[in-house]
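Backbone shapes recur. Consider a single case.
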Amino acid sequence: MNYSSKAPTPTKPFWDLTVPEISQWIHALTPGIPNTGGMLFPVAAKPSAAGGATIPPNHQEQFATKMALGELLVRNLMTALSSASTFGNGGGGVAPEAKRQKIDHNTNNNNGGGGDKFKVLDPSFAQSNNKNSTTTAKSNNTSELSPGAILSRITLGGLVNGMSGVEGGCVDTLSCIPLSDLQKDHHQVDPTATATKGIDAVINTAGNLILKDLIKLARGLLRSISAR
């Protein structure tokens, strides 16, 4: 699904936002502003008003590359939120009341998004394993909260995981410590990353970003989320 949209920025409470509306909100952030979600997208270069000079081809290429990366990270996040939320298929409707934070344990629920495959939900979402399934993987948990409600209380680690596009996540949702630093069994290390582990791991599903750079972008977006 293409979550990029130039529709008007939603003004209703963050808690009520659907996946497409979250994408609209992110795209409406002022690009290039340090320490905000605007860092996801570059500032468009403009020809000189006096000379009318054209933008150098290399600048155009850099702009296109950065735009594509930003779109990829947003698309990863929207997919992760949709997957983690069972409410309205993860994409629409009116959000449940704030006190409603029940976790749906049926990973095959037709109303659900398929499970928290990307580990955006932290323990405060009252996660527990699916008792009706043969698997014990916590990645299959889902929340009845709307995508906007999940994003409004997401941790830095959960946001990094969502933007990474890595199934199973790449950092701990609470501490944001790389999973490769926490895992003693090297066979459990994320297969989508390079042999380099820890903060310097390259995340293939995030446009080959280094993990520490992905964390920096996620931290900026989290500040924008908190400010809203």
